[in-house]
Each structure stands twice: as structure tokens, then as C-alpha cells.
Amino acid sequence: MSTNLDGIYAQAEKDVAPIDSHDKLAALKADYLGASSALKQAFLEIKTLPSDQKGAFGKKVNEVKVQLEALFIQKDKEITEKEARKKIEEEKDDISLPGRNHFKGAKHPCRLIEDDLTQFFLGLGYSVAEGNDVESDLFNFELVNIPKDHPARDMQDSFYIDDNLLLRSQTSGVQAHVMQERKGIGPIKIICPGKTYRRDDDDLTHSHQFSQCEGLVVSEDASMGMLMETLTLMMRHFFGEKREVRFRPSFFPFTEPSIEVDVSCFNCSGKGCPMCKNTGWIEVLGAGMVHPNVLRLNGFDPEKYQGFAFGVGLERIAMLKYGIDDIRKLFLSDTSFLKQFRKE
Q: Do 197 and 209 touch, CB atoms closer than 8 A?
């Protein structure tokens, strides 16, 4: 027997002792337990021995193998523990460093407006309906009386994904979905808050992305008087009980008749100033009675049902309510700006 098994283990103990890294230990382990190691050669010698010697020698080879494996496992643990202790020592907290301040966050002003608006209309018996930001051309336009050749489509200048899908330019599609689900049976009394998208960033009061809230009421007795009273209550809720509200004739393809809603300027109390362009009034939103075509397209009988609808931009309300002069401030994540809306 040419292999000195006791010598193999003794030498391994000496070689393992100074090892200080897992890489070096792995290389040494290959020398002692790998395919070309002396121990591997000892296993190959077994078949060359006489039958009466194979048993004892094979047993001894296995014992040495087990001892070597245990030796390397123990050394691996020692290296791991040493590295952990070193890391702990290096990462000790420096108690001389200044403490970390924890600042209380704030809701975005548009979310404040949305929450306030939602609570206001829930108090009037409305429910909240939501939809997807990606809408079909059918629901975004055609079912709200804006066919393919209608000039209102050019005014909205939408972001199309393909010939049928687009980023919704208004939340009116949510109203169409709700009306379709009701299958011509009223009443409906909903608000639809959500993000909308248009290529509209010409000045400091417009952005390609903005939040909108539309409202829809469909019933057998809905009237322009109900609409005007609802919007008057809403305007005074946001801008104060002393605000005067004005309604002007306008045009929207999904309502007929249509109105624009103005509120008396809170900067000059209606006397005229740069904020209201010396008119004494500030335009806030559009509204009107639901066009009979919209009712008909969505399965409602316009001889039995009528309705009213309105739409308001949440950024516009936020800018007016909080005196924000540039819509871009609402999208820049400027903490010095946003912290103004933190409630202590």
C-alpha cells in the first residue's frame, strides 16, 4: 500500500490552519478530496489489493475521507464567523452622527381635491364609478355623441395606441360603460374621477396629463334646475359661501343645451383684476343636459329618461383654491411645494 493515509490527514491539518478565505479553502479542498487527490488514488488502490486486505484498507480510506470533510466544514464555519465579526466591527454605529429626521408626508393637492369632491357628492347620494386609463374609441368618443368626423376630436388631440385604443381624453367613457351595464333602466347618479390625457400643454394652466371628475345623473325627472343647483352648491363648497355663480350658454357634443360655469373672482370679489382678466369671473367647468343621442346610443329611451352631466378638471380646482400659478408645480415632486399641504 503506497498511500500513507495517516500522513494525508496530518498534512491537511497543517495546510488548513493558515487559510483565511473561502476561495483558498475551496482550492485546498480540491487538492485533498478532488479527482486527482491522493485520497482518490487510495480508493483506486483498493481493487488492486488482496481480498483479505481490501476490507480494512477500504474502511481506513473512508474514515480519512470523513475526517477530511469534517475538517474542511469546520474551517469553513470559522472563516464565516470571522468575516461576520469583522463586518460587525466595521459597521458599528457612530453615535456622534446627527439623528435622522422623520418628516410627515402630505397628500398631493389634486388628491385633496378629489377626496373632498368625492365626499361632497357622496353626501348628495352619488356613487363613484371608475374605469381604465386605456379606452376604446367607441366608448371614449362615439357613445358620447362624438363620431369620427366630429371637429371635437381634433380639439382634443388624443394619444392613440392603435386605430381602436387610446389613452382616454375624458372620463366620459366611464359614464357610457355604466349606462350600457344598466341596459336602459335608470336612475343613474354617479361621479367618475380619474386621469385623462390630451396633447394640451400650450400654457401654464394646461398639461398633457390631468385629472378630471365627471358627473352623470339619468332619471325621469332630471332637469336643468337640478343641475344648476348642484353646481352652485359645489362651487360654494370649494370657494366659499359668498361666491357668486354664473351660467353661460355653450356647446358640447354630449350635452344639449350646454352651459359654462363661472365663479366670481375671489381675488377681487368681482371688481376685475389680472387673475380674472378684468371680467370679475373665473371659468371653472362645463355642463349641460345629456344629449338625447347619448341616451339613445347607450340604450336609454330619451322619451322616458333625461339627464344632466358635468366635468371639471381637478388641477384647475386646485390651482384656483390654493392659488397655484403654474400647473407644472403639480407634477414636479417638489417637496418644498408639496409640504404646504401637510396637515399637522
A: yes
Say how many C-beta atoms besides its own lie within 10 A of residue 109's C-beta. Answer: 22
Alpha-carbon distances of 38 from 34, 46, 64, 214, 243, rounded to whole Å: 9, 13, 11, 83, 97
Q: Rounded to whole angstroms, how far apart are CA atoms 270 and 280?
A: 4
The CATH-assigned architecture of domain 110-341 is 2-Layer Sandwich (3.30)
Q: Over the stretch 289-309, which tens digit does the pLDDT of each residue have?
A: 999 999 999 999 999 999 999
- pLDDT tens column, 205-258: 556 778 889 999 999 999 999 999 999 999 999 888 888 899 999 998 899 999
